[in-house]
Amino acid sequence: MIRKRSQMTCACGLALVAAGCNLYGSGGSSSATAATSETTGETTGETTGETTGETTGETTGETTGETTGELDPGCDCIPMEADEVFPSPPTCGAPLCPVVNVDCLDGEDHPTELSTCRTQYGTLAVTNPDAVTCALTALRDRTEGYLQWESSPHDQFSDFGYVSILADGRAVGRAWYAHDLGLGAEDAVLAELDPVMTFDDCLAAADETVRFFCLVDALADEVIEVCDAGWTNSGA
What we know:
Blueprint: H1 14-18, H2 28-67, E1 100-105, E2 123-126, H3 129-141, E3 145-151, E4 157-165, E5 170-179, E6 182-185, E7 188-193, H4 196-204, H5 208-216, E8 219-228, E9 231-233
Parallel strand pairs: 1-3
Antiparallel strand pairs: 1-2, 3-4, 4-5, 5-6, 5-7, 6-9, 7-8
Helix pairs in contact: 3-4, 3-5
């Protein structure tokens, strides 16, 4: 909104000008009235037309056009979650395999956050390796449906996630966690899956940690769309 500051031409007001209020001496009433009329006509007509019309047209039209849009259809089956609510599974498709269950243990065999098991300081124990094989096969074959995984789900440091494989071969991935008092969910992102050859290599790998992280890291790095934004709560 553009605010305009008005100026009073006559201290007595326009009504008193018409009644004969004269600030300019004898015979000045008509001149003052004429001057007022001309000034009002020029200022109102030109300023209103140029400022209001142009500014409203440019600002409103351009901003609305740029910011209004729809998500990629690949996001249609991803629930839009409120903050501090753990994500729900996709609303389309069906689970393709049993939930992959692992435990990530620190150097003293205590459950810890999953990222530790990407380093030398953690050890990953896979409870159901057949479920990992099932998941990797579905990713390689681009089978429509979704896969789920969880790490130490009943302990102080728990991690969860899913990969939803779409009919066009793309996928949506999401992860969330409960680490002590800290809770959070990552963005739900739409991306291409890693190449088929990658999953062939994963299936052939003997190391269960390598195989499991092939599932967790199944999406390519380039994000096509953020379907639902993530959130964090430090518990402080």
